[in-house]
From TrEMBL:
SUPFAM superfamilies assigned: Adenine nucleotide alpha hydrolases-like
Family assignment from sequence similarity: Belongs to the universal stress protein A family.
InterPro entries: Rossmann-like_a/b/a_fold, Universal_stress_UspA, UspA
Residue span(s) of domain UspA: 3-42, 49-187
Organism from which the protein derives: Streptomyces broussonetiae
Entry protein name: UspA domain-containing protein
Lineage of producing organism: Bacteria, Bacillati, Actinomycetota, Actinomycetes, Kitasatosporales
Source taxon at top rank: Bacteria
Length: 190
């Protein structure tokens, strides 16, 4: 069986429209459909097709990136790829210039990591415009902020062999509970 498309819907009148959207998406991609109760679907009745993907540091994010690129392609829109980075507070520095260099290095590493995470998707889908954003801050907060302007956010979740279901981390858990748009959580084998 193929992996299902899992969609959150609310208990309002617009939930029927959410179900229609989910049915259209699963028909486009030939996937089974699973519905999960959520809230605030009303905001997405006039969606403008803005897809965001969280491209994290783990190599398992390739599935989420592939899903997001295909989703942007079928919607005919650009994809915004977001990578968060942090400068650990535990790094001792003797001078402010050294601290600036450390921050710049972390940002460059995050940018390089984002390029690597997108490399295969760019090669396989050259017609999809991909906007890259490298942002300093905790990943769960950076991506939550990105949901304010998104119509769909895509993240990965680890699926470990021998375990039942997905092991949601802080990012997916935060987005499922607080995102201001639909969330697609793509299983990543570990």
């Amino acid at each position: 069986m193929e992996r299902p498309l899992v969609v959150g819907v609310g208990g309002s009148d617009s939930s029927l429209q959410a179900v229609d959207w989910a049915a259209d998406e699963t028909a486009r991609h030939g996937l089974p459909l699973r519905l999960v109760h959520a809230s605030l679907w009303e905001r997405h009745e006039g969606a403008r097709d803005r897809v965001v993907v969280g491209a994290g540091a783990r190599s398992g994010g390739a599935g989420a990136v592939r899903f997001a690129v295909r989703e942007a392609e079928v919607r005919g829109c650009a994809l915004t790829a977001v990578r968060a980075w942090r400068t650990p507070t535990a790094e001792p520095v003797d001078h402010i210039l050294i601290a600036d260099d450390a921050a710049r290095l972390r940002e460059e590493q995050a940018s390089t990591g984002l390029d690597e995470a997108l490399r295969a998707a760019v090669r396989e889908h050259p017609e999809v415009e991909i906007r890259r954003h490298v942002v300093e801050g905790p990943a769960h907060r950076v991506l939550l902020d990105a949901t304010a302007e998104a119509d769909l956010i895509v993240v990965g979740a680890q699926r470990r062999h021998g375990h039942f279901g997905l092991q949601l981390g802080r990012i997916a858990h935060t987005l499922l509970h607080h995102a201001r748009c639909p969330v697609a959580v793509v299983p990543q084998p570990v």
